[in-house]
Design brief:
alpha/beta, disordered N terminus
Length: 148
Amino acid sequence: MNNIHFVLVLFLIVPLVPDRDGICLRIFWRIVVQFFAGSVRCPPCVDTTDAVKIAHSFGCKVMMQVGTVEEGILAMDYGVNAVIAQGTEAGGHGVRRELGCGSLSLTSQLVERSIQRKKPIPILAAGGIVDGRDVASVLALGADGLVM
């Protein structure tokens, strides 16, 4: 049985726009930077890989919240430290419902994709998690944690 750890993380939600001279990252260094679903593909003028590298250069961990398997794979390829699998039953934040799927299905698929990598990336589930049964469900699927 896995040990379950609950961690309170202070994080900065950074829009995917140029941070002039890294001001935000200098002020909020050594925390977690989170990009939301949809940020993977827009705006096209910003290279997401560079944004992840910049955050890492300031000692930040990077999580990317995604709504599709394809976005999850891209996030893993960008070198994020964790992927948040946000299903369509979640409360918004950029998920395109016509492209996404439910939290359990998305989490399961991304866990499998992560396991297949040389260095697996933690997958956190989000959306539709309301009680202990839901927590047990996502952990049974192999998620490393959840976001509520």
